[in-house]
Write a structure and sequence with these properties.
Length: about 270
């Protein structure tokens, strides 16, 4: 099926400081309810930009712990429903059995990555790696940030969506995904990396949002050892990055970056 467009025009009135009023038209991103159904069993309804939905199905399934690797997903079908879209995700028998044994109801939102959990021990927890994170060059981070500015067509059009990207160790962008939700953008990126056979440990992840606990967890779920965020981290995100020994670079700009963890591994970075 053909997916709905990712944006549409909207009419508005611009009121200037001098009191003048003028009509304008600008693009706004679409936000569509998407139902995730695993082997006929409904699991979640998430609000998404209707693009790269197969990537989202793979990435969400991995970062939510429903599958452990791409082999756990046999097929993904996108279907139109009266009030949105439906992702039919067929799991391998062993993954379906495991999923049904710990299934939770999840009413999703674009801004929440822990919707629907009933107990604190249901919070996702990536396993700490057994080796230290590799060193990373600030020049590569700057190169990736500069390239990312020109790799967000939907944000260029609407100025209202987030992006998540994966870059090689030299800063070359290998994949970029966009969505109205920052967690969704990262799940789409994770799915694209899964399907493309990209090894997260062989590069670094960038997000154009604040760095929350859930983004650290989702990045760690695919083995990423460095996370770069354009905005600042939360205290819990920093605690989790430390526990996972993940290089955490935030408030990242082309001219300056702040290294919150991994100070001895981020080259050219001055320790505070």
């Amino acid at each position: 099926m053909s997916l709905p467009p990712s944006s549409r025009p909207a009419e508005a009135l611009v009121v200037a400081a001098d009191g003048s009023i003028r009509p304008t038209s600008r693009a706004v991103p679409e936000e569509v309810p998407v139902s995730l159904v695993y082997s006929t069993v409904p699991f979640a309804v998430m609000m998404l930009t209707p693009s790269d939905l197969e990537d989202f199905a793979h990435g969400f399934s991995l970062t939510e712990g429903i599958v452990a690797d791409p082999a756990g997903i046999r097929e993904v079908a996108v279907e139109a429903e009266e009030r949105g879209l439906r992702l039919d995700i067929r799991l391998a028998p062993s993954d379906l059995t495991t999923h049904l044994s710990r299934r939770r109801s999840m009413a999703g939102r674009t801004g929440c990555g822990l919707c629907g959990i009933e107990e604190l021990d249901q919070m996702p927890r990536a396993a700490p790696p057994g080796t230290a994170a590799p060193a990373i060059d600030v020049a590569a981070i700057r190169r990736a940030l500069a390239a990312l500015e020109d790799a967000q067509p939907l944000n260029d059009e609407t100025r209202a969506v987030h992006a998540a990207a994966f870059a090689a160790t030299d800063g070359t962008l290998l994949a970029v995904r966009e969505d109205v939700g920052r967690h969704n953008a990262l799940d789409k990126l994770v799915g694209a990396m899964m399907r493309g056979g990209m090894a997260a440990a062989e590069g670094f992840v960038l997000v154009t949002s604040r760095c929350s606990f859930e983004l650290v967890e989702k990045a760690a779920a695919i083995g990423a050892r460095t996370l770069v965020a354009i905005s600042a981290p939360t205290a819990l995100a920093l605690d989790r990055a430390r526990a996972l020994d993940m290089n955490l670079v935030a408030v990242a700009r082309r001219d300056t970056v702040a290294v919150f963890h991994g100070m001895d591994r981020v080259k050219e970075a001055a320790c505070p």
